[in-house]
Amino acid sequence: MLADHKYLVLDKLGATFERDDHFFYEELEVDFTFVHYAGVHEVNYPVLQTLNLRDRFMLIHDAELLDYGYYVEDQTAENDYPKSTSGPGDGGPGRLQLKLEHIDRLGCRLTLRGHLHGNSFDMNTEIRLRFRIRGAVVPEWLGYVGEALSEGYVYCFEQRYKQELFQYFAALDSFIEMHVGLHNAANPNDPIEIRQLLADKFKLLVKHRLKGHGLGLNNLSFWGDFCANFEDVTKLRNAIAHNSSSALIGEQEANDCFAVVAAAIALVEMSCLTANDILAFYNISLP
To answer: pTM of the entire structure?
Structure first.
């Protein structure tokens, strides 16, 4: 169920966020590759507009062009997006049509294509673009763990499931090693041996956490299923990394790995003791 709500999980962890009020004010970029400049004469000009969002995002997960139109500072109303320079309607001179064609999620660029039916005056007019964008900035809470989760989410949108699984597992590995280091620094007389299997280190982490609440692993109703899933994704990741398996990695395998790391974080960071506690932590409605 956690993998069905990746946005809620990653939003809670600071690995993504979404807003629908991202505005851009740009000069129109006419593509002269296949058309000549016609001056004051009205012709159809292809438009190829590229927006670089690197100053706003570390990664982009998804985007939607909500509206666009010509813009004149101190004259165009806040909610007005005229598509022609001759006023309301789409039939006058300077007709503009744009659509979002491509999202470069890792490069943080949006590419728009369209056309302008107009003249030199129209192409020198500024345009305003409004987007809904889901993306990530550098996570403050979990550091590299959040970055790896965020990058895995990119591959989810692109249906590159092997890369998605690897990023989620990298997040899991980093999260456990981080907490082993914190535990050992705080408990020099009772350290967790770093030269052992990742699953064993995590088990010891959880036992120490539960001990502080006067509980044991038998108090975790989901522990058996969690360990089985942890073992499965570990075997799959290792088989691929060591080139000992030709198994195809699909959406389900990536989702399984996501669920393991999401549950692990909730268990260690927030001491969630039941499956419902984990869902509630991530603001996921109970079934």
So the answer is: 0.90
